[in-house]
Amino acid sequence: MKDFGQATETVQLEGDGVTFQARAVGPPAAAVWELWFRFTLKVGNGTSTTMAPDLNAQTAKDMQEARDKVSFDLQTIRDHLFGEHSVTNGAARSGRRNWESFEQIERILRKEPVFDKSSRDFIGRVEAYKRALAITKRLTELQRLHQWTSEQAAQAMLILSETLPITLHDFAFEPVLLGQGSTDLVDEYWKLVAHKGIQGCYLQTELGHGTNVARLETTATYIPETEEFELHSPTLTSTKWWIGALGKTATHGIVQAKLVLPGGKDVGPHLFLVQLRSLEDHSLYPGITAGDIGPKAGGAALDNGFARFDHVRIPWKNMLSKFATVTQDGRYIQPQNPKHSFAGMMYIRASMVTTAGWTLARGITIAIRYATVRRQGEHDDRGLERQVIQYPSTYYRLLPILSRSYVFIALGRQTTKSFTASAERIKQGDLGYLAEIHAMLCGLKVLVSTETINGLETARRALGGHGYSIFAGIGRMYADYLPAATFEGDNFVLDGQVVRAALKSYNFLVSTPDRPLGLHSSYLRLLRAGMLNRPVISAMMWQEHAAIIHLLEWRAALSVQSAAQNSDHPDAGINYRLSKAVTEAFVATQVGAIVSDLNQLSPNEASALKDLYLLVCSYLILPRKAALVDLLAFSLLQRAPDQTDPTRDLRAAINAVCLRLLPNAVGFTDAFTFSDWSLDSALGVSNGRVYEELWKRAQLEPLNQTNTTPGYEESLKPMLEEGRRIASSTKSRL
Amino acid sequence: MKDFGQATETVQLEGDGVTFQARAVGPPAAAVWELWFRFTLKVGNGTSTTMAPDLNAQTAKDMQEARDKVSFDLQTIRDHLFGEHSVTNGAARSGRRNWESFEQIERILRKEPVFDKSSRDFIGRVEAYKRALAITKRLTELQRLHQWTSEQAAQAMLILSETLPITLHDFAFEPVLLGQGSTDLVDEYWKLVAHKGIQGCYLQTELGHGTNVARLETTATYIPETEEFELHSPTLTSTKWWIGALGKTATHGIVQAKLVLPGGKDVGPHLFLVQLRSLEDHSLYPGITAGDIGPKAGGAALDNGFARFDHVRIPWKNMLSKFATVTQDGRYIQPQNPKHSFAGMMYIRASMVTTAGWTLARGITIAIRYATVRRQGEHDDRGLERQVIQYPSTYYRLLPILSRSYVFIALGRQTTKSFTASAERIKQGDLGYLAEIHAMLCGLKVLVSTETINGLETARRALGGHGYSIFAGIGRMYADYLPAATFEGDNFVLDGQVVRAALKSYNFLVSTPDRPLGLHSSYLRLLRAGMLNRPVISAMMWQEHAAIIHLLEWRAALSVQSAAQNSDHPDAGINYRLSKAVTEAFVATQVGAIVSDLNQLSPNEASALKDLYLLVCSYLILPRKAALVDLLAFSLLQRAPDQTDPTRDLRAAINAVCLRLLPNAVGFTDAFTFSDWSLDSALGVSNGRVYEELWKRAQLEPLNQTNTTPGYEESLKPMLEEGRRIASSTKSRL
């Protein structure tokens, strides 16, 4: 990135009170973002005699003033955030006790030199990988030393927020082995796995296939004579690819391969345990070609790898045969239908939503703190420039992200509760219900990942030029989180699942109107009563959660009805649009439940949080959210006789709630209780001294450790000397 | 990033014909994007016996088939793209001749070993910087060797698409010196600058100030006794920051500093030429502290730097005094109003829009080619999986980006023409008109930068998992282009300018209805006739450019009117919303002009291009574009008695035009004529063999050059050994 500050030419727009400057930079390819507009308030004829205050000292003052303004008790809000299930889905505990355990673990971690983050910004992949291994080693030691539960270990990982190869061992290799391995195989490996005596990875994705597992090409052919399976990669596209920890770390792997029976019958993908590297010197086993797939977005420290198998033999017992098995003489035995896994899905669902919330929380803390101490542009009554956060275009972008982070954290808790409540029904085999929950999960996944990615980038852009510095911290967060969008690469699948379930419920409703509706299709009840009691919109209603939630349910109901009635002529965007409508209605009702719980809190805290959650509800309806279009299209929002624009009241209401929230913005972010070490952002330092921190970090840049210029002797010097030679020998101008 | 392929548990959704698998990975903080949904078509009971074809060979076949399908003459479309002003704003030339010169320069460049791109993905900042200097040196030699005009040199930079420190010398330092330096100063330095005898940078932005130049803190105090200026950085926040090429490269700089006269009067920011480094050994001059500001988004090879001045003296003649000057005895002489700069603005405006087009062109070429050869999911009649581009959710995302790239390229040309036509009026001092054009430029800047950033990311996500690999190529493009969003950091300023000009024109219209409207406010004419002849919407109209353009003009007119009538109660988002409405109306009318020019072409090519431009028009109205909300809110789009949803016809029309464009998608991207060398993307190779290319590039990863694992001895080995020791000594299970 280049300097944002150059200007070549000036055009005075008389009377506008501004100076417009623009410059041409770079070849056209680069020029677009080199162009720079600048508006300078003209004092008289460009003369300014104001004495500027000490901007650096001012940053700390501004942060202190912001904290003095906070209207609520910080600990109450903090305990609300850390309430049960808010960080992990562990056993129910009070928010206070959750936070204390969180705090205790962090105190241990931040004392460890190995976990120091100051070098992260300057090291290449190899160094980053070595650092990750060192962190992994120390983390394992600490877990033993303090006898952390697996939940506490997970909390430690969350606090560290580093990408480590070990993650794949703990959360992919281990559960797959335990979940699908035979008792004998589990007995043989369990202790080695638990104590990290081996390092595992999980090999499924291939160069040619991600989504469609049925088309994986790797084969495992059973040889009855020797009672072995022969693993083989028949084609280039069958190369295992993207496999975390395979590149350099793993000693063992579980491979997804098509099981081929004697006689050549292919019975589809099954799992096999394979040793990849020697436990003596870590060298690759014969017949295995493996390596790292190269740099990618985020996760520099992770060795995503590739592997090819050339007729590699493994013993019969290494097939993971808990559900499907092959007898020693080569007969295939059908898989059963595993119900055990539901609890696992619960865990995922909770952490998926909650994690999105905590990730947004980090980004928005940085953005709100910086926007509070950064002053630019218009002057306030004290002759100071205005705090950036005071500009409508800034708080209008940032506050909704803050509210979403709170909602996702609470929603994760809420979702677990409601889904846990219904776990019984599913254990009893109510698969229709399971299907509906699964569809809702797809919708939630799309919503939280999309919102978190957008939210992080919006927060980063609100940082202005300094937001592009790696020291700002959000850029790294974005790159590491971005892969969540891969699910979006699959949105047509996920949205399709949501839509399928919604249409199914609708058709049931039409065929059997008095059939009870599931938790996630309750909005369809509105179609029973028919169109008669559609809501009537008034300016007031935008201040009421209930009214907005009702509107969003109506939108979902009418969208599903319209889609069902036009299912013979779908448009290209229908799945995306419909899935959004259904999921946003669900989220809105969940927010309603969260808000009603707030009455346990004292009035001050309750009302502050209610505003925060109200902002989410109204924001769900703004254009970017597509809901507004639907409300207007379905005439749920109609122009009153005296109105030119029926959306004005909503926009005014959002501005009003933003202005109520503004004084508490810093307080809401402080309630996350991120330490400076954990947040690791020059623009998010809690004392507000962002300029000192930027300066300090820039001094660590390797290029600044010497006064010499790399490449000077080879390139720069000869070029300059040749230029001077020609210049002195040239008589006329060019 | 981690493997996308793991699965721990399976829940069979009976009767759904799908298997749903999910896995818990990582601590909650990581789990969200580790969660993986997979739907596998069940063949019988998980049994698949289909013989898969050679996927690798298929990629090349698919690409060839796509090319065979193209309905138009490639050269005609190519020449349309390269038409005059389409690449730079040089003298008018035919598209054919533009392309030939383009092609000739590229042939020269891609032969140069120094310009090889294969190492780019693996080197750190220092190596990247050294590589950039070597490229700069060779590029300078080639320019002399082939006697390239400055326009051809710019074209060469565009083809190279590398970030080079030299850019700041050519496009910031040089024009500022020439534009604002006195004749004596220019005479003294011109040849040195032109022949790269010195390397310049431009120091304006400070740690504490970007936008508000009036508040820059660096001072230049005139000392009449010695006829010198004394440059000084009084505070930490006055440190010059983000300055391109300052960190390690520049020998000279032009500094923006507050001019302080004898007696202490501060007359605001002025420009001063300062030597920063010795021409002997490149060491920093006394009193100057400078260095690199550290890593940032994109531009790894660029040394954005900081600098502080400790009472640094420079001679009187080094003030850039073409407009404002100080006499030797210290009297200040007022600046005049420089008109010379308009041509420069023309150049910027053209390259700004055109560049956005060519950047999108690179990204969409990669995405469409990969989506054409990538097969996944459903099976087609040949038993092959479906090409990803055939999925509605894919072409619905990609084709509008393709059309925008064409529009921005043509729009750059169009804008230059129309603005050039009116240059005279402005030269004659019609500043109101200049203000209006300036406002429109602000709007265009916001629109093209926003659309290009979004378009690049949308294209990247359409690549699925492989899109996260650096070898895909779009990630780097995105990071390098992203800073264009800094303008968006300034959107409240830019949008504000657009809105101010629009309201001004509206008020003129109200006060003096028969006053002629400027080019950029012609949409306001609709308010003259009053609401009576509002358009009536029919399904047909979505096939007509003119009708859609008319709608968008109506939307702009009513938005401005409504904003004017409610100016006393603006909502937080009004500037953003209104600016969009006005700019999109302008863009639409420009597209109309482009389309009417197409009749010069033969019917085949004309109709293909018309569809492409039609898609842009209709896309301007989709939800993400906010226009649909306005159309509905202002009742420009009303529900026909027989409709439940007035937006259905539009959605259907967009799907229809997408289906017409689909067979030509690869053809439209081939017309950009990017060579594989210039595109530098494993997923965008023109022969379609993406898997071979991914494999080839992964082998170059430094981690794969040895079989050893970095950090094995220090961390991994001891951890594994300790784990095995504990495992063997543990009796019971944990």
UniProtKB/TrEMBL annotation, chains A, B:
This is Acyl-coenzyme A oxidase. The lineage of its organism: Eukaryota, Fungi, Dikarya, Basidiomycota, Agaricomycotina. The keyword Lipid metabolism applies. Its cofactor is FAD. GO terms for molecular function: acyl-CoA oxidase activity; FAD binding; fatty acid binding. It comes from the Eukaryota. The active site is at E488. Residues 343-502 form the Acyl-CoA oxidase C-alpha1 domain. It comes from Boletus reticuloceps. GO terms for biological process: fatty acid beta-oxidation using acyl-CoA oxidase; lipid homeostasis. GO terms for cellular component: peroxisome. Belongs to the acyl-CoA oxidase family.
